[in-house]
Amino acid sequence: MHLKSLLLALVAGTGAFPTKDHKKVARANDTSTDRLVFCHFMIGISSNRQSSADYDDDMIRAKELGIDAFALNIGVDPYTDTQLQYAYKSAADNDMKVFISFDFNWYHVDQAAAVGQKIAQYAGESAQLIVDGKVFVSSFAGDGIDVARIESSAGTDIFWAPNYHPGQGNFDDVDSALNWMGWDNDGNNKAPKPHASVTVAGGDQAYIDALGDKPYLAPASGWFFTHFGGEVPYSKNWVFPGDLLWYNRWREILELGPRFVEIVTWNDYGESHYIGPLSSPHTDDGASKWVMDMPHGGWLEMSRPFIAAYKAGETSPDQHIGDEKLIYWYRPTPRDVECDSTDTTMGGSPDNSTGNFFRGRPDGWETMQDEVFVVSLLTSPGTIQVTSGSVEQSFEASAGASAFAVEMGVGQQKFSLVRDGQTVMSETSLKDIVEECICGLYNFNAYVGVVPAEETIDQLDSIGLAMLTQGLNAPCPTNTLGASASRATTA
User: Fold this and answer.
1) Which neighbouring-strand residues pair with 413?
2) What would you report as the CA-atom Rg of the chain, rounded to the nearest whole angstrom?
3) In the predicted model, what is the mean pLDDT of residues 479-485?
4) pLDDT tens, position by position, 434-481
5) 145, 240, 285, 324: which is deepest, by most CB within 10 A?
6) Which residue ranges form the domains of the chain, and what is each CATH number?
7) Closest to 361 measured CA to CA, from 178, 227, 455
8) Distance from C-alpha of 38 to C-alpha of 217, rounded to nearest angstrom
9) Would you say residue 103 has pLDDT above 90?
């Protein structure tokens, strides 16, 4: 996780807080159901939004998908309250819920009073998520904070669901807990190693054991790739294994049946686990280098029947498939393409005090497979035909949700559904796989597409591209998807 601002001192608000009776408001707004789906939303890159209307599209899309609330990740930036006010108003206008997630990259565990005061500012808002009669609050990290002082300063009962870590945080103080690690890892925030591997399911069990009979807030994420070099002070460069994670994780969620699920994330472009649109208004922290022309909207469509099945308490999404679709994704280049001469991580003397910076290919690149991934959502059986460059392969897909992988081939990518010898639907992707360094980089992000194709091409706007050229060592034409020229942006 990364927030753009580098402010390290808390700007503590001293203004008056609402005088509403928070407990009465909580009873009136209680939206408790057996199961709720949240999605993590980064306020830190939303400082360019000018009104609540700038949040409307996000709220509408999320609600229509079945997401119940956005977890609004905040630091201590001067624009935080302005953007929270916009987000809460937009949520209210669109019958959506939101709650604050305090990011302890910026807050500190000795600031319990400040955390409580911030909760108090928004506890009475009609869009505030209320669970079991309490104001729902979460965090990124925060182990060891004084929860009693938070609640005292908030002046209301809170449903505290932080991102504590088993063996570190006091789980006696929580109502639930978020497991952020939605990716297989080595137990030390990097990709699995031969001698160290923790699966997401293993993380689930650790949290369930720590929580006892308290409800678990389980993560669901599709990807992780970050590639900041010395051009920014927050240099970091690694991947977690993605591949078919988005599909496989939702299968796990349906079997596990936790009370809460949090999608990681809606708009953290810097770590490539966004499912929201590229066009969603945001500033550029430098991630545009690997995010441009890499929409993830297809993952929204793939998750739709899984979310419906989860809320219905079912273990299969098959009965919730409406319109038939194929969702496909792949990296834009094979993993062994050599980009050392132009990649942004190769020069300068980046700060590696965090241990997260590596030169060249991202740490963990070996865990990614050179494959093209396809998920079919069908109402009756059919044949899935995939052409990846010179590689052609067909699969017999049953009715329901199925997943397939095809060897990655350089060139055009084509996907078809065939029944009784007739093509039902077919699309050629707007993004070729190339053996070249796109914008000079090692780009391990995923391109996600849908058959039938989406009506509009999802693109970054000019503000979202503001830092595109910073640190680049190769040409990088902008927003080339669908252009009449070559699909590939080459060095």
Assistant:
1) 388
2) 22
3) 78
4) 999 999 999 999 999 999 999 999 999 999 999 999 999 999 999 999
5) 240
6) 36-314 (3.20.20.80), 326-474 (no CATH)
7) 227
8) 9
9) yes
